[in-house]
Amino acid sequence: MKKIKVMTVFGTRPEGIKMAPIIKVMENASEIDNTICITAQHREMLDQVLNLFQIEPDYDLNIFKPGQSLTEITMKALEGLEKVILEVKPDVLLVQGDTSTVFAGALAAFYQKVKIGHVEAGLRSGNLYSPYPEEANRKLTGILTDFHFAPTETNKDNLLREGYSIEKIFITGNTVIDALQYSVKEDYSFQIPLLDNIDYKDKRIILLTSHRRENLGKPMENIFSAINQIALEYEDIEVVFPIHLNPKVRQIANKIFNGNRRVHLIEPLDYEPFTNLMARSYLVVTDSGGLQEEAPSLGKPVLVVREETERPEGIEAGTAKLVGTNYDNILKEIDILLSNQKEYEKMANAVNPYGDGRASERIVDIILKHGFSKKQE
Fold it and tell me: Is 328 a catalytic site residue?
């Protein structure tokens, strides 16, 4: 029997994390011939994921350049992916999420009339500029997609409202839950002395991440100032902030957290130590999308420091709360979870709406069932 030729494309650490479990399932599927192509839109951070999951790309476009613009990323990815697609001639091209690599990958596949599978389809914030450029990327990718792998019922409803055929939409759960099963370990030992020496038993750890373009400037100053104040007020609180490589983020963080011994600014973590740190934290404060899905799987309340989110399921389920970027509101919401055990337990014990850890299996099964025939010219 002729194998289905799948081409898996990703370029950033979050894409790699969420695509890795699918690649691992395909490795054991004798009916699939999978070609892995990375753009390396992120370089060092993506390499960490490849090493963790023991993934060897067949093609590496290596497009990363410091300070690259969105236009440069898209053009270089589009040109490079076209060459690979012409050589591989896949039946299906898989992209994940909402980066510029995702949109370029889908567009390159469309130009060659190759079927497109979009993993994590149907997320919508309702604001084209927030998150930017992700909201536009995911909507543009959706137009070109043949298989919409929607994590939740809400994502499916978003796609149906936009006019996509129900026959092309498949609810799978989110593959990030699958990925957590590979990385979180009870006996994990950190290789960073600071993290290994924290008193996780008697201290409450707030894990902070913030890097969104739309939060740069005053919103980020508000976020960091509120966190700084909390760390000054609560003696049993320690904050760990794996600080993003963006120099603008670092400048704001260094200015606001300077001199606060309870706030630890550390370099970005590999995925494995990061998820194990999250598992040992008390609370997560973030403007990240993925953490809104991951933290609830570990029973950690999430305060989302953004004005809107494309992941309303967590808000509705009570695992996350959208608190915005106003200083007073952030301070108030963190204070509630630190001082009110009942409110904390309500969030920590809410049911995670993002899946059961078998999303990757479902996606591969759908490809096996539907993915062979080429698009008709």
Answer: no
List, for residues 33-54, the tens digit of each pLDDT value: 999 999 999 888 899 899 999 9
Q: Which of 238, 352, 239, 353 is nearest to 298 (CA)?
A: 352
Q: What is the model's pLDDT at position 375?
A: 46
Q: Determine whether 211 is an active site residue.
A: yes
The overall longest dimension of the chain from CA atoms, in Å, is 66
Containing structural domain, residue 327 = 193-349
Q: Is 120 a catalytic residue?
A: yes
Cα–Cα distance for residue pair 149/62, rounded to 1 Å? 27
Q: Based on the domain organization, do 265 and 295 belong to the same domain?
A: yes
Q: How far apart are CA 221 and CA 252, in angstroms?
A: 7
Which one is catalytic: 211, 262, 358, 370? 211
Strand order of the β-sheet with 32-38 is 59-60, 32-38, 4-10, 92-96, 115-119, 147-150, 169-171
State the DSSP H helix or E strand holding residue 321, giving kind and residue range, or none if neither: strand 320-322
Global model pTM greater than 0.90: no
Catalytic, 264? Answer no
User: What gap in Å lies between CA 215 and CA 225, rounded to an integer?
Assistant: 13
Same domain, 207 and 163: no
φ and ψ at residue 265, rounded to 5 degrees: -90, 120
Q: Is 213 a catalytic residue?
A: yes
